[in-house]
Every structure is written in C-alpha cells, then in structure tokens.
Amino acid sequence: xxxxxxxxxxxxxxxxxxxxxxxxxxxxxxxxxxxxxxxxxxxxxxxxxxxxxxxxxxxxxxxxxxxxxxxxxxxxxxxxxxxxxxxxxxxxxxxxxxxxxxxxxxxxxxxxxxxxxxxxxxxxxxxxxxxxxxxxxxxxxxxxxxxxxxxxxxxxxxxxxxxxxxxxxxxxxxxxxxxxxxxxxxxxxxxxxxxxxxxxxxxxxxxxxxxxxxxxxxxxxxxxxxxxxxxxxxx
Length: 235
Hints:
Blueprint: H1 4-11, H2 17-21, H3 23-33, H4 38-42, H5 45-53, H6 56-68, H7 77-81, H8 86-101, H9 115-122, H10 127-135, H11 138-150, H12 156-166, H13 172-179, H14 189-195, H15 213-221
Helix pairs in contact: 1-3, 1-9, 1-15, 3-5, 10-12, 11-12, 11-13
C-alpha cells in the first residue's frame, strides 16, 4: 500500500478548503515515498503552490473549465476509449467488480472509471500490482498529459508523475488513435454543445465525480480503512 496514489488522487479532485489546507502534507507524502523520479515530483510544485495561495473560487473555476467543460480532458478514463458505446458499460461493471474484490466499495452514483477513484484503488494494492494496473490506461494518461501540457496548466504535472510511475512507455498505436480525437476548446460554445450533444454537463463535484476530499485526505493519512468509499460531495 502507498499513500502517493491517494495524494495524486486528491490533486486531481475538485478543490476544496480541506485540499488547500493539506497541500504541504500532500507534497511531503509524495516526496517521502519517492515513487517517481525527483525531476517529475518537482513539477508538482506549481500546482501545489497554486492550491496553497490562489483563491478557492479561482481554483474551482479553473478545475471546472478544464475537466468539466472540456470533453477531451474528461477524467473518466473509459470516455476516451469507449465513448458512449455499450462496451463502456461492461467495462464499468468489470472495474467496479475489481474494486469490490479488492475491498473498495463505491457509492451507487460513483463511476468507477473516474481517475481519482481509480488512483485511490491503486493505493490499496501492492506496489507491483498498482504499477501493472496503472499501465493499463497509460495511453489515456499520456494523451491527457499532452493536452494539458499544450494548455500550459500545472495539472499536467500529475500526469507526468503517473506516466513515470508506470515504469513503461504508452502503446504508440493507442496513443496515436487518441491524438486523432478532437481536442475541443471550451471557449467555442457551439463546438462544445455539439461535443456534449445529449450529454449533461456537471459543474463541480456532482454525483458522478469525486468523493469528499476531506475523507480522501483522512484515508491518505491512514485515519480510515480503504474499504467503504465515501459518498460523492454535492456542490
């Protein structure tokens, strides 16, 4: 079991007052476990400093702009692989079953392919198993890293760290396919409407988004067992 995955999960969650207050602790956890090289961990400094110093509403607005309004940056892994096909539904069932077998029960309204939730599950596994599981969606992680890097957002650092922790390169053919997908501009409202046709847009931590950050941070500190996942926070 490692705390780094939980710390990275928290960094990819909707910003809250609790997350701001835990910024230094998150930095310490990731640095002490050193599951990624120092050069990669150092890239997290800007994001962590932003969490500490920027206004909470500014942080939340940036998060929504990136991950809720921009479909190509969606943090639901299967969205990039299966879209809305039936294959996604079965993949969801399989992943939720995997979580349950590992002792992580999630809420009925939580989608198991949400990346912060997936990272929290990895924190309950051995280092070797977690690395192997992390490698499975590595092409999606690499594609998200490229898109976030292009936007010059500090969130790209989290994906750089995850890529190095996987200990392997993404599959080029899969990554090339993902690169061909439209990388929508959230300022282009007409294109945004077309991309999300018939799909509700959730702003902030809705029912299908992240668990309560304060409870996630408790689990990072070891104050709660990993099983029995928190219910999602409502905005």
